[in-house]
Amino acid sequence: MASERRCEELITQVPESTRPLLRQIEAMQETNARRAEAWAAEAEAKAATAEERERSVNDRLSLELMFLRLRF
To answer: Which domain of life is it from (predicted)?
Structure first.
């Protein structure tokens, strides 16, 4: 009987003892999700900047080519 009661106690204590770990895991998952969102936003911003730079360089090259053709 005592061993059965102890077993029941342990069964009820397991969920209680795992709650802090579950909260910690949930907090880490939330942190990782926020970081992933921030990294994605940063990557998008860098891609947009790179595209704008590429457009600018292409525009300048087109103008230089046009001026060279006009000269010769």
So the answer is: Eukaryota
Distance CA 62, CA 58 (A): 6
Alpha-carbon distance of 10 to 33, in angstroms, equals 34
Q: Which residue type is seen at 39?
A: W
- Cα gap 42→40, rounded to integer Å: 5
Per-residue pLDDT tens digits of the chain, which is 72 residues long: 888 888 788 777 777 778 888 899 999 999 999 999 999 999 999 999 999 999 999 999 999 999 999 987
Find tokens 């010769």 and name the residue.
Answer: 72
- Vertex 22 angle, CA 16 and 24, to 5°: 120
| Residues 54, 60: Cα–Cα separation, whole Å | 10
